[in-house]
Design a protein that fits this description.
Elements lengths: L1 E4 L6 E5 L7 H7 L1 H7 L4 E5 L13 H12 L3 E7 L3 H10 L4 E7 L15 E6 L8 H9 L3 E6 L6 H4 L1 H15 L1
Parallel strand pairs: 2-3, 2-4, 4-5, 5-6, 6-7
Antiparallel strand pairs: 1-3
């Protein structure tokens, strides 16, 4: 397991995953770990298996995330899952709902793996001009997650959080502050 962490010690926090073209360092460069640290929130950004500095893993995606939480001594997290990381996060929701305070879904892949009717508080973030996962999928995801809210970033594409980090950070801080 490889990644980055802010200096806040807590058994609760935010676990930041990444999309296929990115890595844990993306969250450092974006300033997300620092923004959360300033709010007193522990944040950990992981390199998923085979990305960034992480070796490939034989563990199933949900088992990989469960092992990471155990290693990091995180008992309750808000999971942030952009794009490809949805393929890790959706199976984890099914496996470890008790460990999750909520989730932030940023145009996630593997939508068919989302457990329908999950009561997990969720923030769904999408770029209006997303050409990878069309914005209509945000509404489909919200139907599966009855305790969700949708935020569409007008004029933004697939990595909308990278294109408008101030808005994303504001939404993330607000969501985490309400549920963690």
């Amino acid at each position: 397991m490889n990644g980055a962490e802010n200096d806040r010690a807590s058994s609760k926090g935010v676990l930041l995953l990444h999309g296929a073209r990115f890595q844990a360092k993306t969250w450092v460069d974006l300033g997300t770990l620092e923004v959360l640290r300033e709010k007193g929130i522990r944040a950990v950004a992981l390199d998923l298996p085979g990305y960034g500095g992480s070796e490939p893993s034989e563990l199933a995606p949900e088992a990989f995330l469960a092992a990471c939480l155990e290693t990091l001594h995180l008992d309750r997290v808000v999971l942030v899952a952009p794009s490809m990381s949805g393929c890790f996060a959706f199976p984890f929701v099914t496996l470890a709902q008790a460990k999750l305070a909520g989730a932030v879904w940023i145009a996630p892949a593997c939508l068919d793996a989302c457990p329908s009717g999950s009561e997990l508080p969720s923030l769904i973030v999408w770029g209006e001009g997303d050409e990878v996962v069309p914005v209509e999928a945000a509404r489909e995801l919200a139907q599966k997650l009855p305790r969700s809210e949708i935020q569409i970033f007008a004029g933004r594409g697939h990595p909308c959080y990278l294109e408008d980090p101030e808005r994303f950070h504001s939404l993330l801080e607000g969501f985490v502050g309400r549920i963690l």
